[in-house]
Amino acid sequence: MKKIKLFLAVLLTFLIAGITASPAQAIEDTTVEVLIHTKIEGGEKVQGTEDITFMLYDITSWCKANNFSEKAAKEFLLDKFSKTGEMQEFLESEDLEALNETPIGVDAQGVAKTTVDRYQNDQEAAYLILASGETGNYRFLPVVLFPAQLHTMDTMVDSSEQLMVYGKYLEIEEPAPSEPTPSSEEEPRTSLPRTQGVTEGTTTRKTLPQTNDVVTNYLAIGGLLLILGILGLRNNTKKIRGNE
């Protein structure tokens, strides 16, 4: 009888321990840590990603409604990303809000960390990860994450069951500087201050006399001197006659 009671007590202890541990074990099995590497696979750092941050969106219902696989969802979202403004329009039209209120930053090694659920409502969960804050000529491409799948297009699993995402980038080419178009109209000349007594548009430089003007002036002076000489001679003649 004592042995039966002891057996029942041990069995009851195991049952209680199992019931207590089951919820924690279930949560542990359905969540996974995601490591987002801003360095490309191989450890090469990408210029301009020092201040990059990430926002996480739940696209589980959207993928299910459109019957999108991981590949189909990624192709669709990459197309939206490549067209200016369409990604934001997509988020607004589908009423998708970020799961994280604060942007996920990177550590000194260029790695961002977050935790997601593998399943939602008994179906595989799907997430969209968008980056912002790049300062160089490279843009971090959107990541489509299906954490229930151990090996996906963008992720891989290490020994500690962490999903590792390695960045893929789109290079933005800077537009060549456009050459200034020559104007058909001449630029207006800067007006000089008007000099008193000089009409606007008249050249203010000193004009030298022409050769003909010099000859004419000399003839006039010579004629004047000749007249003065004759008048003086006549006056002297009158004085001499008066003295006689």
UniProtKB/TrEMBL annotation:
Domain Gram-positive cocci surface proteins LPxTG: 203-239
Leader sequence segment: 1-26
UniProt keywords, alphabetically: Cell wall, Membrane, Peptidoglycan-anchor, Secreted, Signal, Transmembrane, Transmembrane helix
InterPro entries registered for this protein in UniProt: LPXTG_anchor (IPR019931)
Region listing for Disordered, in residue ranges: 174-208
Comp. bias intervals (Polar residues): 196-208
TM region positions: 215-233
Pfam families: Gram_pos_anchor
Protein name stated in the entry: Gram-positive cocci surface proteins LPxTG domain-containing protein
Organism the protein comes from: Enterococcus florum
